[in-house]
């Protein structure tokens, strides 16, 4: 019921559920309570370890302050219940309460920060097929936490960096007249190799313990989940079922032909050997995780019989989509946001809230164009790294002149009807962006943003309007 | 699952750790100090195809360095790398044709100096700083220029970074014998290298080496911090042609002339070399040399002037957008004012130029169009005295370009001359009017607004637009133009959208960047260079786009963005 109320409002969460507010009071106590233990006799090693510890704490506190997490009323209780089930089934192993964060980002990820803090992100919830798959991801992070892998990594780093061997290798670089960069690179690579080797070992260890945690809780385990991890980065390589242009048409827009009239000049239009140029390719020795196939084969024998697949409630999945899309919007990752929105549209036939969001994204793009920030907002991708649908969408958004974007915004506004005063107020705020950017407009936007904040202080949309107040 | 976090943490750790410990700080600083990068745009005619970044990584041995060449497309995406070892290299130009990249370097072999020394003070240095001798803060390395051997070194690569071939030719650059770096020194060719792609065939180079012949180089020698040493020998200017495999097809010495600049373009079988001859420090003295790709005997030299023999000042030598033919445009000079930069600024309110021209070159014919105002025939647009009525100013034009419809535009800065009533008033109320007027002068000049003239494809002259720019302060009328150079001669470049056929002019002014939309004759955007901690610079980019580089002083970070107009 709550879910339907929230989506009818076009809101997936409220401003009060964002981490800066919801965990705000905890920040001081966390800062004080999370003290670095004394574990090394050697002063410099302990100092290095303490520094790493403080960095980790600062990283978490900054993430909370930046609203990287949200404690919503749909996903958080669902995941917490799953976590509670795992905890309750393993009382001998899990003795301390575990703190769960829901990360708003879209690229599937979960992580253990150490000291019983674990996080799972919206992208992973979107990616998971069933409850059991989510349980595996949670159990895996719990295992990292139980095995203190994060702390161990910090310890190892402190030991390595303060070791005589490491210092000697650096001094060797300094004392050499030639090939200094190559020598330093070698030192760093051996360090990375050592770290990656340990990381891969830790992952295997976490997998094994995760399976035990799951089996203790009578949740079904399927090794095939590991195979699905291979596809986490391929979202933009998956083509849309319909052309991107048709998606805009479905929202009441008459988009211009994205295809350029003349053949674009530039090296991107020429053929090149994509594999040799792929700078994102990671050498096998530097991979932090074992291959998915290997993880699958290694754990296949532990498969539950029979395999149970409990669907994730539609409300949870839809909430994850909204959180991720809003996060992309707020972080001006507009090209990706449009594409994920269209992908979701194809899966769910224009879910509620998307008509509102597509207009917001278009206004944000218009604002980016006005502030000469379109390139970074679209994060132009190589055509070889994305599907033809993505490239079509990217081309269309990249080439659209400002006047065309104003028209798009106005057309989307005309088509958009909402019974919610908050949405209507937000769109009338956005409509001011269609005017040419002047100092007068900036003042009007600031006043309108303040008025919106006063009228709807609990709206998650204030996260967007606040930038105009600043 | 925590792959990305681990990767990110590791990256942060790798970056941050070195700065926390002395030994590591030192090693990272020393290694990074040894590294340096050069970025060059990859051009094919007037189109920007991508970028290359040449990074000198480290000393590989006593004589050479390890380099990494990164090739990026026009959206700054990496598409290839090439690692190699060479002696001291200075990347000059990059061209592109048929999936082949042509990179030309100035390559030097030399004995590395051992000790540091202070460069000698020169009288010129002392004079320049009004009696305060300029003392170099850094210690300098002194090179023995006799033992420096230089080459024009070319690499031909495919766009993935695979080497096809290399070529090398000895050259005689001008050296600065003092450098703050032990790893390299400042050397330059007398006439900088220019390369043009020859469609489906290869690349044509022009350059000049040997000692500088430009009189101003000696006259303004005081601008150099150190004494410039020239290698012995005479100047040479050459035209080289390489095929797509890097084979040299032609090595022609241009007819001997004292010259200050060269440029090159190709049209089918012809190669056009534009040369600026040195004639009494005049702004004119341009000539066009024509060569045939296969007929080595065919040459043609044409002095660029009006039919009556008045010199032309070339502002643009590019392929035209409408016909893809070499196109020259610029100003018709006034015989009275041959070198504008040495004139007092108040003279810019006189007809220092008498008209404009554009010349279109074809293999078989040359189409020349002139519009003169000095004869009073363009009274409604530009007066006899070069006053542009509708702009309410004179204009100093230093940039020209053409559009997709064959119109040519002449872009410059408005010159506003005023009477100095204050100095006249003082001279009237004091007993020494003449000496006061002699000291203070009676006129002042300020520069502001961008003035654009248009010569249509049919040869009609129009005042096209006057658009906002940063206004200068008033300069006393007697100040020479070169002293007000930044206010007078501004940095313009044009951007063309091949799809919409629209053209834009970008003015990189003192305080702001102005983007003018030529079709609507309006200022499209004004971007301040400084906004809080951010400093924005503008560069050319792919068709219809500009590149903005935003440096954040607080974060010490640079953000690049390629924006469509």
Tell me about this structure.
Chain A is mainly alpha-helical and 470 residues long. Helices cover 60% and strands 3% of the residues of chain A. In chain A, a hairpin with a 2-residue loop joins strand 2 and strand 3. In chain A, helix 17 packs parallel to helix 21. The longest helix of chain A has 37 residues. The N terminus of chain A is likely disordered. Chain B is mainly β and 565 residues long. Chain B is 10% helix and 50% strand. Chain B contains 7 helices and 40 strands. Chains A and B meet through helix 4, strand 2, helix 7, helix 9 and helix 10 of A and helix 1, helix 2, strand 2, strand 3 and strand 4 of B.
In short:
The complex is a heterodimer of chains A (470) and B (565). By secondary structure, chain A is mainly α.
Distance between the termini of chain A: 36 Å
- Whole-number average pLDDT of chain A? 86
Q: What's the average pLDDT of chain B?
A: 83
- What's the main sheet of chain A like? 3 strands, mixed
How are the strands of the biggest sheet of chain A laid out side by side? 1-3-2
The total strand number of chain A stands at 3
Number of helical segments of chain A?
Answer: 23
